[in-house]
Amino acid sequence: MKEEEEDEAEIQESEKMLHEEPFDLDELLPVIGEFGRYQKLLLWLICLPACIPCGFCAFNQLFMTDVPEEYWCRVPELENYTAEERKAYSIPLVLHDGVESYSKCSRYAVDWKEILNYSDDLDGPLAPNSSWPTEPCLDGWEYNTTVVQSSIVIDFNLVCDYDIYPTLGLVALNTGGPVGVYLFGLLNDRLGRRISYFSCLATLLIGSFSRVIVGLTIPAVYQIPFIIALELVGPNYRSFVTVMTCTFYTFGIMMLAGVTYLIRDWVQLTLYTSVPFLLYFLYLLVMPESPRWLLMKGKLEEALLILEKMANVNGKQLPDSFRRRLQQRVLAEKNRTTKRTEPTIGAFDLCKTPNMRLKTILITLNWFANETVYLGLSYYGPSLGENQYLSFFLSSLVEIPSYIICWIIMDRWGRRWPMCLLMILSGISCIVTVVLSEDAVTETLILYLLSKSMISASFLIIYPFAGELYPTQVRGVGIGTSSYIGGLGLIVIPFITYLGKDNLRLPLVIMGCVSVLGGFTGLRLPETLHHRLPQTLEEGELFGQDWTFDECFRCIPSKKSPTSSYENLSHDPSDAALELNAAVPINAGTFATGSGSCSTERTPLELARIRRQSMKRLVRQASTMDTQKTKDGAMQLTYWF
């Protein structure tokens, strides 16, 4: 009987603990190290290098489908002549941009055996006649392989009437992205981060010859290690991890430019940009599972082993009180028979009220513009300049300083004006190319690089800006909705870049107009810097409702109060004392209250909990780029590229 009473008391205590404020892993990380040696080794040696395959496999197709600058119809009867003679005899001259050149898709439709015999009888050279009828290239094409030595286009004759197929390959790649994020997202949540990442990597490598299969893994193969890194570092370092992840992704694309310059055979290029990543399966020996995911699944012992290892490597100690708290919560979950059901909030709830509906439309439009123009300019880089490999390298290189600069100005000038100004200037840089002459190759490339740099910075801003505009209650749903709809631009953009085969600057003008339009519409969004961010849909409807046209001309947001750069999550005025206490420094083992000279010895875990509780009511509004989270704190995949 006594044992039953003790068990019942333990269950009641566990239930009581469960109804208290959740014990989040973020409360423990300051104690065992938010960004200690363990996280640094994991980040620099595993998570960041694990992002490189995404850029390699997303852009290697641009060089696998290289189109030689010069090609013409093949005439089998003239194979004994030189290339220049074959063109002069069999290919009609056409005007292209005011310049006379050999046709690429037609040839003279004559009986060459009869003409050759007639020429032999005359004992003179062949003399083509411009009045001869013409016909399509029925016997294939010949290619000048001086620069482009091998490509899918050459091997499969994907020119003239078939030149749309490489574009369809890019469309297939980008169509697979949303499907892959959903599938690998389910795998990520059900089987864990490790299994999900290596399954994604295996799918990528095995299906590297198929654009659809490769598309299924992008951007999931990039985001899963990113999520692992985010879940293992403290909140104060997640912005740094995000910037470094973007930077390593860019480094990967820059490395791809070097690989494509050295490897000119498309089959070898496919192997060189996929087979080396088989070595990544060695990460199976060292890559840990996310302790957040393990705790979410109730695998307490496995999570504790990882956290103990993290603490030991960081030179810290895992507090026993943390173990007991987790054990109690797991026990309470197992004994709970009834669970409180919460109303499900979906994407349609974002559009029920006018202000939230307008903000959702504008956020989605800006996401579409940023994503479409960024990827479109990335695809278009090799088409500009005199050296496609150098142009592609430079188009990646300019992203890195833009990340650093925009991260500095975001917390000084806010989010709205930097994003909108960068989008408008990026678009203008593209549109201005239309007034340049055809010979202004270098000038066009410079304007393109300026545009790429600015849209990269703008694209970096849209994610945290959207996260701050959407209320906490619907943040995950809002970001997911905007990113998925914005991702539709990735399906359209290959067709826009395809237009450049006839007019090199037309795609730049189209992308420039999209960027400018997005930039001007973004000015209607309210600024979030120095404002208390909305928590519920009701607060989201009120946030920015008093917007006036004058705000479009306010470049630097004004601070509302001395503490206006902080988000006060508590609506109770009685919490002011706690906020004041949060500003009082906490010395080793002593908690100083604001009401007197009371000093009480605290354990490190208790100090961390005090700081955490204070910060939950007084959270600095800084630039952060978290991904979606479940109610258990585990992070989810979001479709953004």
UniProtKB/TrEMBL annotation:
<dbReference type="Pfam" id="PF00083">
    <property type="entry name" value="Sugar_tr"/>
</dbReference>
<keyword id="KW-0812">Transmembrane</keyword>
<dbReference type="InterPro" id="IPR005828">
    <property type="entry name" value="MFS_sugar_transport-like"/>
</dbReference>
<keyword id="KW-0472">Membrane</keyword>
<protein>
    <recommendedName>
        <fullName>Major facilitator superfamily (MFS) profile domain-containing protein</fullName>
    </recommendedName>
</protein>
<dbReference type="GO" id="GO:0022857">
    <property type="term" value="F:transmembrane transporter activity"/>
</dbReference>
<dbReference type="GO" id="GO:0016020">
    <property type="term" value="C:membrane"/>
</dbReference>
<keyword id="KW-1133">Transmembrane helix</keyword>
<dbReference type="InterPro" id="IPR036259">
    <property type="entry name" value="MFS_trans_sf"/>
</dbReference>
